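SAMPLE LOG
Freezer: B-3
Tube label: C17
Construct: single chain, 128 aa
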Amino acid sequence: MSLFDKIFGGAEKENKDPKIGWKQLSDLGQLNEILEISIEKPVIVFKHSTRCSVSRMALRHFENEFDLEEKVIPYFLDLLNHRDISNAITTKFEVEHQSPQLLLISKGKCIYDASHNAIEVESLHRYL
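STRUCTURE (predicted):
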């Protein structure tokens, strides 16, 4: 293992044992599901680039701090494999594309989004 992998983690370790029970966002139809679910319970969407060390660090930090298991439904979007879904999110929720990016969807609307080092669980607490 290289020094770079020791610091940032290798891609092969990506999301093997996540602390969060992520639902994989891999189909455009799931955006309608997210809208419906968010009427009853808030949904978070973490948009992640599996080749980006900044995205990997943001994801790890978020997963380590996550304490909202009972309050939100978490979705995970692999941007490299599903750029079409990311583009649809940009349009549907009227947010500028970022990577990494976290969105909080409630009552069918994006009520909060953050990117890069601004992705923090503590910030979500203010909206829940």
